[in-house]
Amino acid sequence: xxxxxxxxxxxxxxxxxxxxxxxxxxxxxxxxxxxxxxxxxxxxxxxxxxxxxxxxxxxxxxxxxxxxxxxxxxxxxxxxxxxxxxxxxxxxxxxxxxxxxxxxxxxxxxxxxxxxxxxxxxxxxxxxxxxxxxxxxxxxxxxxxxxxxxxxxxxxxxxxxxxxxxxxxxxxxxxxxxxxxxxxxxxxxxxxxxxxxxxxxxxxxxxxxxxxxxxxxxxxxxxxxxxxxxxxxxxxxxxxxxxxxxxxxxxxxxxxxxxxxxxxxxxxxxxxxxxxxxxxxxxxxxxxxxxxxxxxxxxxxxxxxxxxxxxxxxxxxxx
Length: 319
Description:
This protein is an alpha+beta fold. The chain is about 40% helix and about 15% strand. The chain folds into three domains: about 1-35, no CATH class; about 40-235, CATH 2.40.50.90; about 235-300, Orthogonal Bundle (DNA polymerase, domain 1).
């Protein structure tokens, strides 16, 4: 994959006049070996440090590290794979909506009561990352509601522990969001199952956010949540996309607003980045030619792709 990406980058940057000759061969290779973010090898960055910011939360934060490919120090926002910490503020309507949705997951009747728990998750993350740590990332984009760029990553603490798993074990995060095979080769399904087991244990031990949970109402609150999701899925059949979405930068929630795209397909689209044309979406399991034709009016090509290490896959915070 790395070879193909470098080959394409060098060819388009340095040999544009060779396009009629090289393009057919290159794109045949890319068709055989698509640059799928779910299969792109993770890059390891050791000795990373946390850069203090006012906006960080438990699962999304600014990291400073040395990039061996350039020999330079860089800073990027990383978002943990597979978990979601509660909000640390309720300033905007989107914050309040997320708090409401998170409260229903945890069985908490007062969403505002979650905010201190969100700040506890942030403090927990800061303590765990006081010493240099390791980042494993494929530079797959994880767009937040602010529109600023961040990347999914596994973060391993100085003690050798997975930060996401530690947050879930402490009852400070739930299992939710994009995931993939871990640095040690654990499959995505097994990793998600492991996190789910940790979440159940945290709930049974009344840790973190689970201390606020009302078990007698948890099933009721989650039922309300599922009903709202069903209603939203019906509403999404008539898309409210005000402008075409860039397939390489649209967030999970934005993709779910597209006709015929639910949580599963939206997730697969994110994992399949980068796309070099709308037709590349056909390699996503579940998207047929018919589905693609329905999506075309709501999508646009171009924009940042997923791996900033290579010129063709260019790069660019808050949740």
